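Whether sequence alone determines local backbone shape is best considered at the level of individual chains. The sequence in question and its structure tokens are set out directly beneath this paragraph.

===
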Amino acid sequence: MVVFIYKGKVMEEANQKIYALANELMEMREKKKETEELVKQYNNAIRNIEEKQLAHLMDEQRISKISLQNLDISKSLVYRGGYTKHSDRDAFKFLFDSDNQGALHQYLIIDLADCPEAEFILMEQKVPYRTEYSIHHATLSSILKELIESGKLSTDDIEKYNIYIQPQIKVKQNN
């Protein structure tokens, strides 16, 4: 057996590997966090130059397109809406008011727990519909854990329903 001594403690080779990997994981997470902060800073700087400084200078000079040395620079406007999905019709009132409501996909959502007869009524009236199901990811995770640990889901079920079981490692600095 190979042993390592760390801070006065004897560690077996496997424990040393676990320790090294856990340390590497912590360092990588810290670097990722630092990188994400840098990306935020770059995005803010890019937005400032793109949406404020360059736009302002080009507006002042009354130009929308210019070539300087090896750069072609152009300014145009992009229009974006604050909502792409919303249950309140008024959020898209401007589309209805301007006769552009055809661009909207409208869905009628009925919670069958509140109105169990809705599906029967739709079929009876020959109204085409589709049923969609949703579940919060944390609720699904909890239910899957319970079903798998109690043996109520087999390995075939896991494959059939595209279920993944992945390890989650948490590492904290304990000074």
